[in-house]
């Protein structure tokens, strides 16, 4: 059965290898990073954290080596510690170089963006001028439409006023028609009454004439034919 100290040494070695690989992977990410600067800062923070963990594990391994009873095992572990420290220093050098490469790439990218930004600024200026011209044309068109609408509104107002006047005229004519209708009805009644009276008068005249003729015939009869 392995001693607890051997188990601890094995765990330290495994952790050191794991952190070393993670540091190398992060350094490669920094090397491949093209910005922005905030991304580089975030990667560097992760590398610092892994270096601290790696350094802590190397120190634990070194302490375990010093506690070894056998000199041979002690020297073997101290040699591993020295190798890990050497590898960590190599990683730190690679880290600095990766940062330098990444910063140069970011600076070049920013310079290119500035140059491109100048071109974009010129294009944007041209676009703004074109938009301003288009906007002016649209504004003139809208003003023309507004004037036409104002004229249409004025014409509609005049037409409405004419319609109101015509309506009033029609209403007045209707009132006059009603008044004339009443007069016509009254005249019709008077004419009907006159016609009836005329018929009565004719009948009376006819009866008077018939009576007159009967009287004349009676007188003539008595004068000419007294024996009858």
Topology:
Elements: H1 4-32, H2 37-66, H3 71-224
Walk me through the structure:
The protein is mainly α and about 230 residues long. About 95% of the residues lie in helices and about 0% in strands. Helix 1 (about 5-30) runs antiparallel to helix 2 (about 35-65), helix 1 (about 5-30) packs across helix 3 (about 70-225) and helix 2 (about 35-65) packs antiparallel against helix 3. It is found in: Endoplasmic reticulum membrane.
Show unreliable segments: none
Assigned CATH class of the domain at 1-117 and 160-175: Mainly Alpha
**Which structural class matches the secondary elements?**
mainly alpha
Helix content: over 70%
CATH architecture assignment name of the domain at 1-117 and 160-175: Up-down Bundle
- Give the overall pLDDT as a whole number: 83
- Largest sheet descriptor: none
Radius of gyration computed on alpha carbons: 64 Å
Kindly, what is the distance between the CA atoms of the first and last residues, rounded to a whole number of angstroms?
192 Å
Quickly count the helices. 3
CATH topology-level fold name of the domain at 1-117 and 160-175: Methane Monooxygenase Hydroxylase, Chain G, domain 1
N to C succession of SSEs = HHH
Tell me, briefly, the overall form.
rod-shaped
How many strands appear in the DSSP assignment? 0
How much strand content do the residues show? under 5%
């Amino acid at each position: 059965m392995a001693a607890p100290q051997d188990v601890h040494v094995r765990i330290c070695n495994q952790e050191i290898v794991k952190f070393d690989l993670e540091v190398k992977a992060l350094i490669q990410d920094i090397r491949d990073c093209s910005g922005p600067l905030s991304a580089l800062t975030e990667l560097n923070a992760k590398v610092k954290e892994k270096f601290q963990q790696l350094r802590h594990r190397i120190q634990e391994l070194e302490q375990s080596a010093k506690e070894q009873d056998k000199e041979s095992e002690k020297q073997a572990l101290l040699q591993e510690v020295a190798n890990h420290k050497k590898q960590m220093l190599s990683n730190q050098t690679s880290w600095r170089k990766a940062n330098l490469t990444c910063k140069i790439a970011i600076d070049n990218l920013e310079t290119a963006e500035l140059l491109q930004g100048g071109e974009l600024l010129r294009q944007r200026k041209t676009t703004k001028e074109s938009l301003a011209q288009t906007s002016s044309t649209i504004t003139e068109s809208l003003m023309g439409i507004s004037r036409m609408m104002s004229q249409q509104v004025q014409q509609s107002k005049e037409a409405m006023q004419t319609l109101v006047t015509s309506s009033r005229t029609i209403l007045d004519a209707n009132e006059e028609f009603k008044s004339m209708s009443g007069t016509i009805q009254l005249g019709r009644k008077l004419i009907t009454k006159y016609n009836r009276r005329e018929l009565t008068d004719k009948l009376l005249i006819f009866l008077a004439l018939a009576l007159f003729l009967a009287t004349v015939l009676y007188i003539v009869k008595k004068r000419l034919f007294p024996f009858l």
